């Protein structure tokens, strides 16, 4: 019998874990490939039947397949989590129908949990700090609860994601320890300092003492942005000039802010945006580059480009260099990326991550030497520069890992009490 369900609703991927009567956990697997993770994405499309338009949707890998089958006549929704704490985002129209953010998230959650058994307790993860420059964390948590309720989950417990990862890690401890949990998602990175006493962990609510935490809206997506911004966007006209009344002006940077985040690329297909790029191209020093940009936007190539970039980034975690390859019609990229230049590009992000770790220590009023173990979770934990950030502060011998993609969900299920 299932005692609890842990839901790690992530910016890029989501994971569901189940806790059984005997205390063991397992991850809910999805689709024909039985994947642990479920892409946090929705795709909508409209079809006519008997004179009426019918709205359809798919979630996860099926959503990506649907979008790639017909990118021009579908609407892709990604990174919903990054907008939870943004009061400026209230609703959007999808083929003429109004969707609040809560409704979008609820639609996704229902599909994510379609094969999950019912359980008396459900714990949902939330970041320490929600993404966004003007994020309202309390508002983000409230909207997440509202989305869960709309999905048919009215009574859920919210738990900080790094604390959940710590709950999983605590099961490996044999003696009391002060642990820094670093949880790297797609949109946010969260850090929590916790004191674990494994002798008391069998008692609900005991054995874990929160000491301090901090979070920031920087994670894996930001690293992908840096690669596209540095290696791809200049080939599409960024840093070029065009003429206004005979005077050279820089090509508008906003053309590339959305382009470098592939899930926003569909928003650039608006006729007004495409006309704006075409107008600039008429007097640009390299008009062909801007025309390539228009082609990539019109053909919905953001996901394919993202896959190529993400693959090169992952390769740099185990090699000193990797080749970034991408081709569409007459636009072709084949560039060798070195780990050194990648680390140079993400240096501002690393500095902000380091400052956030320091803030977590300050919040706990602890020196770095008081931390016994550092447990890192999430795909970004594999980036050597990220690991070095922690090794330099705490010592490489204190770094531990394991279950980087599923530890939060498993910890949420383990932490459920009632």
The count of DSSP E runs of length 2 or more, i.e. the number of strands, is 20
Beta-strand fraction estimate: 25-35%
What coarse outline follows from CA principal-axis ratios? globular
Q: What value does the Rg take, in angstroms?
A: 23 Å
- CATH architecture title of the domain at 2-174 and 403-415: 2-Layer Sandwich
pLDDT averaged over residues: 89
Report on the biggest sheet. 6 strands, mixed
- Which percent range fits the helix content? 25-40%
CATH homologous superfamily name of the domain at 2-174 and 403-415?
Answer: ATPase, nucleotide binding domain
Provide the low-confidence segments as ranges: none
What is the distance, rounded to the nearest whole angstrom, between the alpha carbons of the first and last residues?
15 Å
Task: Compile the SSE list and pairings.
Elements: E1 2-8, E2 13-20, E3 25-27, E4 38-39, E5 41-49, E6 52-59, H1 61-69, E7 74-78, E8 91-94, E9 97-100, H2 101-112, E10 121-126, H3 137-150, E11 157-160, H4 161-170, E12 177-184, E13 189-196, E14 208-216, H5 220-232, E15 241-244, E16 247-250, H6 254-259, H7 271-281, H8 287-298, H9 302-315, E17 321-328, E18 331-338, H10 339-345, H11 347-364, E19 373-377, H12 384-394, E20 399-400, H13 407-415
Parallel strand pairs: 1-10, 10-11, 12-19, 19-20
Antiparallel strand pairs: 1-2, 2-3, 2-4, 5-6, 5-7, 8-9, 12-13, 13-14, 15-16, 17-18
